[in-house]
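Q: what sequence does this backbone want?
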């Protein structure tokens, strides 16, 4: 029997395992992942940005974890020789109408105890010569990293501490008893004193399998990107973000210089017809029908009908997608970009149509379920892992 069994081999689950090995040396840990490699889904498909926490409500888990995670992930990368770059980012007001929103965001940065700086139009041009804007905020703590490499390092450290790592192992049934939990998989049955659910896109299903009602459902939103062609990468120095639309719960199209030197532009946010569907044509009947039958989705769809329609149009029209890029960098043309990767965000949605905006954890008798770990979960993975370990051990 294991002390702890973790379902999900993304960066959050692996960070939780790493935290447990440090807090309780000698404990026995099992990590179960249904894919053939670690970080196969959200972690392996994100933009690689180390966030600062400027967007998040002061005092929220997101704000606290992002701020702490920013420092801890940098320290972790330095210790384990993981390539990273604290390059900073600019958040740009494209016109005078966006100035009040930028001012509000600047104040939120101060409220979150971040080092932020207002930039004039001329100062913005010094940092990002091709970006058009009337004013900006510079956030020096933001950076880039290969989160997949960080997650793989967590896995190696767990294994070095005696942990049992199982890839290609899919959970089929969970039975929670008084003293332990039994996890039936395609590769046998495992017993653990405590179960930790970090299954990301399937976290609600794992919680339900263990007998817990979550009052929410994971809705997959696909984010699609374009890449700047190699000869056009000079248009972006580091990270360039728009002022967020207060009427839409996603950040909007931004530019990210990746750790490998590529520059991505995106994402949009469109409903995925499959929880792990990274292509427009991906479809899974069960995943799709769950969304269609969920009242919360239709309430959300009605609330954001205009914005959602625009997102779908951008998904189908390269011209429209490029026009959204041109708001920040007018020199970009359709000839300058090529299709890039896509990611799927596991967004928890309540039956009343409200998005679960913060990290959400359900505690069972012999289990703990991380049922919402949205961005900046990769940045905040170390403090999230520590929080999970603390809740279990305390």
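A:
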């Amino acid at each position: 029997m294991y002390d702890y069994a973790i379902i999900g081999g993304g960066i959050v689950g692996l960070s939780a395992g790493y935290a447990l090995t440090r807090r309780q040396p000698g404990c026995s840990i099992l990590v179960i992942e249904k894919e053939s490699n670690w970080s196969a889904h959200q972690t392996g498909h994100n933009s690689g940005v180390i966030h600062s926490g400027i967007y998040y409500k002061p005092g929220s888990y997101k704000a606290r974890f992002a701020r702490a995670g920013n420092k801890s992930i940098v320290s972790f990368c330095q210790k384990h020789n993981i390539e990273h770059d604290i390059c900073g980012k600019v958040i740009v007001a494209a016109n005078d109408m966006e100035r009040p929103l930028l001012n509000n965001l600047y104040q939120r940065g101060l409220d979150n105890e971040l080092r932020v700086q207002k930039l004039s139009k001329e100062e913005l041009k010094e940092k990002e010569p091709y970006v058009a804007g009337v004013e900006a905020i510079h956030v020096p703590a933001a950076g880039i990293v290969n989160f997949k490499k960080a997650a793989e390092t967590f896995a190696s450290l767990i294994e070095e501490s005696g942990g049992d790592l199982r890839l290609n192992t899919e959970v089929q049934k969970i039975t929670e008893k008084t003293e332990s939990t039994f996890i039936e998989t395609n590769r046998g049955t495992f017993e653990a004193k405590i179960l930790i659910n970090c299954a990301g896109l399937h976290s609600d299903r794992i919680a339900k399998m263990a007998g817990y009602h979550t009052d929410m459902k994971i809705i997959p939103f696909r984010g699609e990107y374009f890449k700047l062609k190699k000869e056009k990468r000079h248009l972006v120095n580091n990270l360039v973000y728009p002022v967020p639309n207060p009427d839409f719960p996603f950040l909007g199209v931004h530019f990210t210089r990746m750790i490998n030197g590529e520059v991505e532009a995106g994402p949009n946010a469109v409903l995925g017809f499959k929880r792990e569907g990274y292509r427009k044509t991906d479809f899974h009947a069960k995943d799709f029908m769950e969304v269609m039958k969920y009242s919360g989705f239709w309430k959300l769809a009605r609330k954001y009908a205009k914005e959602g329609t625009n997102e779908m149009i951008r998904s189908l029209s390269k011209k429209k997608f490029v026009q959204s890029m041109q708001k920040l960098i007018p020199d970009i043309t359709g000839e300058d970009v090529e299709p890039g990767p896509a990611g799927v965000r596991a967004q928890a949605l309540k039956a009343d149509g409200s998005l679960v905006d913060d990290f959400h954890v359900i505690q069972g008798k012999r289990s703990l379920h991380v049922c919402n770990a949205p961005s900046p979960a990769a940045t905040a993975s170390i403090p999230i892992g520590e929080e999970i370990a603390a809740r279990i051990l305390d």
